[in-house]
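Go through this pair.

…
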Amino acid sequence: MERRRLEAAEDLQKGITQARVARKFGVSRTTASRWYRILEGQGMERLRKRKAPGRPSRLSSSQLAEVRGMFAAGPRAFGFETDRWTTARLAQAIEGRFAIRYDPDHVGRLMHRLGLRPKPAPASLAEPVCEVYGSPSAGIALHV
């Protein structure tokens, strides 16, 4: 994406029309026009990729790595009676370890971001749905 914007900006600087740039890069004319306005008003640097806005993570990168280790250790290592992680359980474990409270919904997003909870592939209608909810060593499967 960034490379495409920068290449388009170079073409716009060469005098190629916004319509041609839009066709060349497979974007709308509105997008090409926006890129042109940014280029003219704020320069090439503004078209570079930048970090998404939003609240910074309350967990450091080393703590996030530790969350991965906590997940791998399994829920029993944190006092739970079964090998099944839930977002609520992982939220409790994170709060117990780091004194940082997360909503279970956010923990689900965190798990996905850390690769602990990949989005399931679309199931065909002929096959039953099966999702694994255990720690990697537990191998517990739930058929829905």
